[in-house]
Amino acid sequence: MKGILLIAAERGRQGTAGEYQGEFQPSELMTAAGCYMLYAQSLLKGDVDAFGVPTNADTVAKAWPWRHEDFDPGLNAVEMLARAGALIAAEIDRHLEQEG
């Protein structure tokens, strides 16, 4: 499956931009996307501990903009990148709806 299709599927799973309207503070969606991207980067580089967890997991979790228990990364870098892409798309949609 192509990356854009993975992002679109994840975006559909996350919900539509209208559901986000006014729900998040500025930059929260982008910050969450960044957390997933950093996590994926460590997975791809092999910067992991003996259990396969990225060595930057604690740092990334601290940057997570919402409740700690809502940060649910996996051990699949492609999945994390799809989540990041979907969050970026949601932020773009949110801005377009506000302009609109």
Number of helices: 5
Radius of gyration: 14 Å
Q: How is the main sheet built?
A: none
> How many β strands by DSSP?
0
Cα(first) to Cα(last) distance is 33 Å
Coarse shape = globular
Order of helices and strands: HHHHH
Class from secondary-structure proportions:
mainly alpha
Percent of residues in helical segments? Answer: 55-70%
Q: What number of structural domains do the residues give?
A: 1
Structure description:
With 100 residues, the protein is mainly alpha-helical. The protein has one domain (3-99). The chain is 64% helix and 0% strand. It is built from five helices and no strands. The chain has helices at 3-14, 17-20, 28-45, 57-63, 77-99. Helix 1 (3-14) packs across helix 5. The protein is globular. The model has no long low-confidence stretch (mean pLDDT 88).
What layout of secondary structure does this protein have?
Layout: H1 3-14, H2 17-20, H3 28-45, H4 57-63, H5 77-99
Helix pairs in contact: 1-5, 3-4, 3-5
Features:
about 65% helix, globular, 5 helices
Brief overview:
With 100 residues, this protein is mainly alpha-helical.
